[in-house]
Amino acid sequence: MGKNWGYKMKFIKINLLGLFLCLIIFSCGHSLPEDYGVYGYTGNKCVSFETQNLQFKGTLFQSITGLKGPSGAVLEKVDYLIVFLERITPDLIQLSKLEFIRQDYVTNIMGHSGVELNMWVAAEPISFKIESISSDPDMYKLIFNNSLTDGFYAIHFGNLGKGSSLELAASENIVYDFVVGQLENYPSFEELKKRNEEQVKNVAIKLIDKMNNLYNENKFVEISSIYKPNGYTLTGNDLDDYIKGSKIWFFEAGRIENYTIQEINVSETFGVILINTEYEKIGRRIEKMLVNKIGENYFITSIH
Asked: Which of 59, 105, 204, 212 could join 271 via S-S bond, C-beta 3.0 to 4.6 A?
């Protein structure tokens, strides 16, 4: 009796603990939120979206609004949204899929001028129907007409894109954003710039290594596939002169015994590299190489 009673109590405690954990995991579930905000629901999971202010770029006459990047909310898919906000009526609610734009044109006093954007702007309005929630007049359920595909989305209550600067300044500039899919696919400009610079750095190191190996093997014709002086492809007499000069230099300097990169400075599309190169016959010498992006690929464009 005592053993059975102790076992039953242990079983009850375990099940109560399991029930408590389940309540934590599924607390959001399909229940309605208690706090003001915007929420995304999928299955038994709900995610609260963060807010961020719109970014403005343009002139006194016309501006373009957008976002720097995602604020962090990510879902694999979204079944529906709940908008629970004060003083927001259904006619104000908009949902847009965003795209990253580097630059665009806006109106100024002289006509049009280019403006650097580097932000995410509305690319496609998403259609949905709204259902009122009878238990609270400030709460609305948004049901999409079509399932949301992977992308970066924003719920906004004013213009998100190009418009009159005065109108944009007077409109609501708070946005709730979320990502469907993988967060890393929708970087901010700062993150994108950092990625591109790291790519240039890695490519530059590989190009230098490849060039030095081809030089040591006297494969000067193949070097022309990665070396484009001032951005031009070596052909005809220019290629012949390059090969002739390279052979003379190899005879005088010898093989490259070793090299180290002393300094490397990169931007999104080019790099400047200082290299300490040790030659077989003339010893060490500091060389400067430029690497540039031409089309979709990178090339060494200068050697000093």
From this structure: 204
